[in-house]
Amino acid sequence: MINSNKLKIPFDTSYYLKNAMEKVENFNLLFNKYIEFNKKSEVEKKRIPEAKKEFFDSCIQFTRKQKYIIDKYKLQGYEVATYEFRPYDKIVVGLGQESVREVSMTLHWIYGIPYIPGQAIKGVISNWIKFRDEENSNDDNFKKIFGTEGEKGKVIFMDSYLANDDFYLKQDIMNPHYFEYYSQSKNPSAPSDWQNPKPIFFLIVENAIFHISLIFLEKETKDLKIANKTMEEWMIEAFRYGGIGAKTSLGYGTGELTLIRENERNA
Questions:
Q1: So where are the chain's domains?
Q2: Where would I find the CRISPR type III-associated protein domain in this sequence (predicted)?
Q3: How far is 160 from 221, CA to CA, in rounded Å?
C-alpha cells in the first residue's frame, strides 16, 4: 500500500494513488515520478519500485516495430547490419543521469522499457577505437563513419531494445566505505576506517539480449577499415572488453556481439 504521507503531492493525486496505483502500466513513471520522502523531507533513495514482469510485456512487440522501420531502409537500398548482444552478466545504462534518486537508469520515455540509446553505442565504439590509438580519429574512414564537427557520419546507430522476454530487473548495491572522502565535503577527510559506509541502491538488467542495428548510408561503408579492422571487428572488441553503460571496470555491460544473418533474423 502507498504511504501518501511520504509523498509531496496534492490531495486528489494522493487519493488516486491509494485507489489506482495497480493500474500504472509504465515502469518509467513509477521509477522517475513516484518518489517517497522521509521525515526530514529527504528522498528515500532505498525505495525503488518493484519491476513487475507485466511492465515489459510490450518489449518484443516494440522490437518488431523497429524491425519494420529497418526493413523500410532496406527497401530503399540501404545496407543494414543487425547484431545480437548478450551481456555476460549485468548491465546498467544511464546510472549517472540526473535523478532525484541519486542514481538512474535509461528507460524508454513512452514504453518504460530499458534500452541502449544509439548515441551510447556510437560513443562506445568510437571511444574504443581512440583508446587503442588516438591517431585513429584522424583516419579518413573514421571520419566518414563517425562524422566530424562539420559533417555527419555515414552510419546510423539505431537505439537497441531487448529481444527477449525472460530478462529481469534486479536491485543491486554499491557500498562506498569512505563516503566523506569521495563526496569532498567542506571539511574533507582522508579515507579512514571510522567512516560509515553509505549503501547506494540501483537497478540493473540481467539475462538480457539486445539487438543492435546499424544502417549504412553509402555503399561499401560497412567494409571500410580503420587501422586494418572493419567496424564489425571493432564493435566485437569494444563490447567484449570495454563494455557499455556504467561500472564496466567491474564487468558490467561486457558481452558477446554476433552478427545476425538475414535468414536468422526472419525466422
A1: 65-168+204-265
A2: 92-254
A3: 21
* Phi-psi sector, 42: left (phi>0), alpha (psi -120 to 50), beta: beta
Give ∠ CA 60-63-66 in degrees, rounded to 5: 160
Give residue 50's identity as a one-letter amino acid code: E
Pairing of strands 210-216, 200-206: unpaired
**CA atoms 143, 145, 147, 153: torsion sign:** positive
The per-residue pLDDT for range 97-148, each reduced to its tens digit, is 887 777 889 998 888 889 999 999 999 999 999 998 999 989 999 999 999 9
- Cβ density class 75-97: b for 16+ within 10 Å, e for less: eeebbbbbbbbebeebbbbbbee
Separation CA 37–CA 17 (nearest Å)? 15
Each residue of 179-217: pLDDT tens digit?
A: 666 666 656 667 677 777 778 888 999 999 999 999 999
CB-based contacts of 175-182 (< 8 A; 24+ apart in sequence): 175/199, 175/200, 176/200
6 DSSP 8-state letter: G
- In this prediction the pTM is 0.83
Q: Which is nearest to 226 in space by CA: 237, 239, 214?
A: 237
What architecture (CATH level 2) is domain 65-168+204-265? Answer: 2-Layer Sandwich (3.30)
Residue pair 104/232 in contact (Cβ under 8 Å)? The answer is no
